[in-house]
Structures are given as structure tokens and as C-alpha cells.
Queue: 3 jobs
Job 1
Amino acid sequence: DSGVTQTPKHLITATGQRVTLRCSPRSGDLSVYWYQQSLDQGLQFLIQYYNGEERAKGNILERFSAQQFPDLHSELNLSSLELGDSALYFCASSVQGTGGVQTQETQYFGPGTRLLVL
Amino acid sequence: QKEVEQDPGPLSVPEGAIVSLNCTYSNSAFQYFMWYRQYSRKGPELLMYTYSSGNKEDGRFTAQVDKSSKYISLFIRDSQPSDSATYLCAMRGTYKYIFGTGTRLKVLA
């Protein structure tokens, strides 16, 4: 158990809908990262938050947005869902996230949310 | 060209074999190199990390980084059926994490 929690575990929805995925980082971790993993694309970095502020952005679609709250939990919002958005969505956390020494940058992954868009 | 290339496998080996997993990369700015293990679509679990070039050993696992060749390896000695999983290499420059697509390993009893 990495200490990172994600809810829900599974989500089934229809095209055009909007969903929210939630992540609670490990106690003491300030950074949260979101990843999408599909069968043909591997693990794709979406976005990183550090202590409430956006730190880095990857291949995140405009239909997707995220935020990190004062209690450091994070939510990933996916809207106007398409069939191709079906994937595993992982959250990871690290102590820091400022490009510093590795031990503080090590990412610990949650169990993921499996999203199926029908 | 992808920034990180990793053979997807599957790689099947008999129990007790030495396994070699590899990744190549193109961005010389990468300084930190990691290997993650992922069981059947669960969250990736960090196995090893290395800074810059060199070797690092932890139990049955050895990670090697050759920055001059932009090549990293993970060796698993005395492989066990419980090692059957997908192994992901990952690299970081300043902020950006890039993951390989993963190599699926099967260790046969």
C-alpha cells in the first residue's frame, strides 16, 4: 500500500458526460501528479500540482482540468467524454516536486481509477 | 522518435534465470532514472532509482545507467514467478517525467 488513495475505483459513464476523479496524497506529500494509462499509449503524464499550484503540464486535453485543494487532495475533471478517454487514471504523490533531490521527488502511485466510456 | 523507447515484450524466462530489461532515450537532459513494477493494471511501484551514470544494487535487482549511450538497464537475478509483471522505465529532467511503455515479463515455474 503506497499511502495514496484514489476514488472511485471504477467508473462507467456515457459519451458526452463529465466525471470527477479524486486523489488523496500520502501524508506529508506536497505534490500530486495525474497520469493516463491506456493499452496503446502507456503511461502519459497529464499534470502536476505542488502545494495547491499547477507546476507542470503534460499532454492534458482542454476538456480535462485539475486542481489541488488546501488540504492537498486533488481532483481531475474530465468533461465531454469520448470513447477514447477510456483508460486507467493514476494519481501519484511526492514529498516535493520542485526539481530537487531525488529522494524528495520519488513518486508513489495510487491504485488508479478505471474509467469506461460507453 | 519517442523520447523513451522500451521493448513491450512479452519476455518469457524460466524460474531462476537472469532477466535483462532495457530502455533507450534521446534527451540528454534526463538525470534521474527509475524502474517501476506494475502488476496487472495496478498502480506502478517504484523498484529502483539512479542519479546519473553508474550501477545500483538492491537485493536481486541491479540498475545500470550509461548516459553516454543513453541506455538504461534493470537486471533481475534468480527470477521468481512473483516477478511476473510489467516493468516501466522512467526518466526525469527538471520537472518532466517520461515513462516507457513497459516490458511485460513472465517468469515460468
Job 2
Amino acid sequence: KNEVEQSPQNLTAQEGEFITINCSYSVGISALHWLQQHPGGGIVSLFMLSSGKKKHGRLIATINIQEKHSSLHITASHPRDSAVYICAVRGNEKLTFGTGTRLTIIP
Amino acid sequence: DGGITQSPKYLFRKEGQNVTLSCEQNLNHDAMYWYRQDPGQGLRLIYYSQIVNDFQKGDIAEGYSVSREKKESFPLTVTSAQKNPTAFYLCASRDRGILSGANVLTFGAGSRLTVL
């Protein structure tokens, strides 16, 4: 079993829909990162959180430490949100990455 | 603007050749990392460095080597000992301070290596 599991692996939705991507982990962590990878390969850090909830524009990330679970939400989704979203957890100096969720938003 | 520059973006290599991927950052970050990405797998850590002149093996260091002679530079050499080097390689850096915004990872655009 992977230490970091993401679901779904692939998600296709219509423009405007509310999107939820889930991340579950099995190890103790000091922080959790949500990353976005566009088709060209470059990765952008969206959030780093260790408790509660963070919001940036249409993106919201939540984490439940007791349940070892985090969610990334996108409100009013847009085709430019199409990308691979990656969850990563930090234990000491090391990050462990999920395999990513490929999101496609159809106009 | 501050960021991480990786070069080359695409690289082709013949079997048995060593190749060096460049990673330069002007963010004044202490920690730097090299990851490998393969289809269907999460990023895997090759090497990391927390300070100049010091680096540690990651999970898949065999067949790779690094150096950290300057704070801003962390080149990765893929040696002929790496049995399956075709992959996408990502360099990242992190400010290990305690100020707001610290500990966020910044990634380069990646280098795609293909062994012919």
C-alpha cells in the first residue's frame, strides 16, 4: 500500500462544476503540500498546510490530521484548471508524493 | 524574478554515456532536491542537499551523482550505471526558515532525458 493515496486517478468535469480531489496518507506528517503540474511538466506549489483550511482564489485545501486525510476543492472550474494535481506529505526532511489526479475540464 | 532554471529541457543520450543536468536557483534557498518522475508513479527523491558542500542520498540514488559547491547550483549527473535513465527529472528548492512562506517547495520546469 502506498503511503500516499489519491482519488480519483482521473476526473473529467464540465466547466463550472465543483471539483474535489482527495488525498489519504498513512504516516505521521509535519505538513501536506498540494501541487499542480501542467502538461509541459512544470510544477507549481498551491498550498502547504498542517492543519485546518486554506483558500486561494477558487482553490480551497483542507486537512484532517486525526483522519489522515486532505481534500483539494476547486469552485467554478475552468478549462485552464486542467492539470495533474499532486498531494505530497512531509515527514522530517523527506517528501512522499502521491501519483496525482489528472483533471480535465471540458468547456 | 526569482526561480529555478533547469537545463537542458530535452536531452538525448546514447547508452553508456554520462550526462549532467543543470539546476540553478536565485531564491537564496538552502535546501535543494532532485526528483525523478515516471509515468503512473509519484515523484521519487534521488538526492537532496540542505547546505553547501553537503548532500544526502534519496530513495533511488544508485546510478546518480550530485555536487553542491555553491548555494545556487545543484547539478545532477546521470551515469552509465543507471540502468533505466529515461525519465523526467525535476529540481526543487526550499527555504528552511521560519518566516511566512518558508518551507514551500519551488520547482524547476524539468528536464526530459531519453536514452537511445
Job 3
Amino acid sequence: DQQVKQNSPSLSVQEGRISILNCDYTNSMFDYFLWYKKYPAEGPTFLISISSIKDKNEDGRFTVFLNKSAKHLSLHIVPSQPGDSAVYFCAASDGQNFVFGPGTRLSVLP
Amino acid sequence: EPEVTQTPSHQVTQMGQEVILRCVPISNHLYFYWYRQILGQKVEFLVSFYNNEISEKSEIFDDQFSVERPDGSNFTLKIRSTKLEDSAMYFCASTLTGLEQYFGPGTRLTVT
């Protein structure tokens, strides 16, 4: 029972272009969503979050969009940089539990 | 910048042995978590801890697992009798608000 899905296991993008990472969820009780970045041999690093009362949150090169009716969120990175190459996890919370998606490996090509 | 630390970075143990994984959360944080990630799989929630007690736990967190905050700074995960399938990266996380979690670097547990 995958409550949080990231259907693209990997994504390759050219440096300078936009990276779009997608996430879908099934549990309508989730009201807070987070994106984490993970490098090999390191713990996940918090990137950006969004509350269910918003549909967009922006922080520098990172923007998260939330479409509650579609139970879908996306992370946009623009412009993409080689240092952005990592695994990106979407996570959702209902205020008590955190559920992580399986991750998408982003490769930004120079 | 404050960070979550975990020790050891790698623990090798024999099946059936007890292991204790240690974490030092960020000092003013109030909520503490353990997650694990089996190689090639997703990050899985194990347990959350608040106000000196477990607030939530997953199905994975059975009687073989326990957590403690023995001295106000450390947060430990104990596995009483390790199994081969316990081999994974174990991540500790903490948060002040119960929202954005800050993760430690992880402990790689190898059960042989």
C-alpha cells in the first residue's frame, strides 16, 4: 500500500534547464508535504515544504506546487545545477506520521 | 549550524546479538524519530518519540525494538536480537515543530 508514490525512479536533465520531480499521494488526511534531497552515504536533507492550505511555495531555485484535488505535488528546480544530482524524496504527513516516497534519482548533466 | 549526529557510522553484528544505535538530536528539538532504509528500498518510518514516550510506531517496530532518551541528549534505538533482515541504514531525525525534520548521517547496520 504505497501512500506516497514517485513514479519516476530516475530523471536526467541538462544543466541550466528545469527539473520537475513529481509525487502523488493517496491519503487525503495528509496536510503537510516535504521534499528531501539525499546524497549517497548521507542522511536526507530537508529542502522545502508546503502546507495543504497553499498551492505553491518558493525558496530560491526550488518551488513546490500542490494540487490537492489531484493529490499531486511537484518540485521544480530551475536552473538545474550539477550539484543538484541526488535522490529526491517526497514525504507526506498527517500531523503524526511521516510517509516517504521511494525517491527519484536526478542526474543533472553538464 | 546545529546538526544531528549518529554513532557508529557502521555497525557489524552477528544474528541474534543486541545492538544499540545512538543519536544526538539537535539540542532544542522536541520530537525524535528513527527511520530505516534497506538497500535499494525507500525510507521507512519506525518510531516517533515526544515528551519521553513513543507517540507513533510502525508495524516494523515490533517487540525487538525499543527506544530511549536516557540523559536528555542521546536518543537510542535498541534491537534486542538482530535478524539478517534488520540490515539497513538507520536514520535518526529530530524537529522542533513536528514538521521539518533534520536527519543524521545514518548508521549502516550489517547483520551477518
